[in-house]
Amino acid sequence: MSLALLDALRPAVRAAGELIETVRAAGVTARDKADLSPVTEADERAEALLTDALRAIEPDAVIVGEEASAAGITPDACARFWLIDPLDGTKDFISGGADYSVNVALIEGGVPVLGLVLAPRDGTLWTGLAGTGAWVEGPGRVRERIATRRLALRPIVVTSRSHLDDATKAYAAAIPNAATRASGSSLKFCLVAQGGADIYPRFGPTCEWDTAAGDAVLRAAGGMTFDAAGTAFPYGKPRFLNGGFLALGDPEAQAKLPPLA
Questions:
Q1: Helix residue ranges per DSSP H, 116-186
Q2: How many CB atoms sit inside 10 A of residue 164's CB?
Q3: Which regions of the chain are under pLDDT 50?
């Protein structure tokens, strides 16, 4: 694993974002998948593009994609595999919002070690590589290193714009002097990774492709994501389903915060 691998994927992730924006401009039509979550042409075409790009770089790659999994094509988790969420935040995309993202992550030994998260609407791209660092770049914005911050005296809890539940509200209210900031999709991880927020709690169910890329960027920037037991959030779980988690910019702050469960 190297920066060369990360850089090789950047054009494909950007191409997926451009494809998504082309579909949006032409008009979005959605249908429901078997789990009643929405899917669009943009989701499917972007995943095909990203899968082909990964195969070109790594022909024998084990790839777990959201739309392939919805179609019943799901390989078993193994020591090294890729996770693709071609369009996280599909509901926001359909409604005309901007909080959606393209996500690609590499998992090794249950740990997200490489991640790319693109916000297609404005072209901001976050990348992270374990042991090396994390960066943000965008149109007219030079690529720069990002890092998390120590827990602030007035911490910011980032919450979901479309999935804000009572448990999250109660958790934020239990943190002294905390303020909240709403965001969408995996962009919440990136907000913490670049020091714009401190805490991202999640109680509702998600899948590993929803979180892996953002989690990889967060960890590369100095943060950590913990499960309800307070241990490092693992990947390669049965059916790639996530339980609750707590993403922190300052891992040492875990002891100062309310437990997730």
A1: 166-173
A2: 14
A3: none
